[in-house]
Amino acid sequence: MPSVPAAGVLLFLAWIYPSGALYFHIGETEKKCFIEEIPDETMVIGKYRTQLWDKQSGSFLPSTPGLGMHVEIKDPETKIILSRQYGSDGRFTFTSHTPGEHQICLHSNSTKMALFAGGKLYREERFRMTSESTNQRVLWWSIAQTLILIVTGIWQMKHLKSFFEAKKLV
C-alpha cells in the first residue's frame, strides 16, 4: 500500500493529466460523432478495434480484410484537422491548435457485401481446418487398421504352423 505522500502524488498526477475513454458500437454504415472540449496544444490519441459479430456462433469473427474505420476530426471553426481511412484495428492522433469544442466522427466502411465476404471467408477457413483434421484422423486410423491386420495375419500363421507341427501334419 503506498504511503500518504505517494498517494497524494498519484492523486495530484491523476488530477493534472485527466483522461477519458469511450466504448461504443457502430452499426454497418452508421456514423458516430462526439463533441469534446479540448484545450489548445493538446495531443489526443484514439484507439479503436472493429470486429464483426457472428450471429450463428454468438462470437466475434477475426478481423476481416477490407473492413476499417474512417476518422474525421473538425476544430471549433469546423476546419477539418484529420480525415483518413484506417484499417480494422488502429490508432489516430491529432494535436489541437485552437481551444474549444472539437468534433470527432467515426464511421465504418463496411457494407453488407464486405460483412458477408468476411463471414464467408471465416466459415470457409473453419471448414477447411475441420476437413484437414478429419482427413488426418482417417489416415492414422487406416494405418492402424492395416498394422493390426498384418500383425494378426502373422500371429495366425505362426499359431497354425505350430498347431500343424503338433499334430504332425506338416
From TrEMBL:
It holds the Pfam family EMP24_GP25L. It is found in: Endoplasmic reticulum membrane; Membrane. Residues 1-21 form the signal peptide. The keyword Metal-binding does not apply. GO terms for cellular component: endoplasmic reticulum membrane. The chain crosses the membrane at residues 138-157. Residues 31-170 form the GOLD domain. Keywords: Endoplasmic reticulum, Membrane, Signal, Transmembrane, Transmembrane helix. It is a single-pass type I membrane protein. It comes from the Eukaryota. Belongs to the EMP24/GP25L family. This is Transmembrane emp24 domain-containing protein 4-like. It comes from Salarias fasciatus.
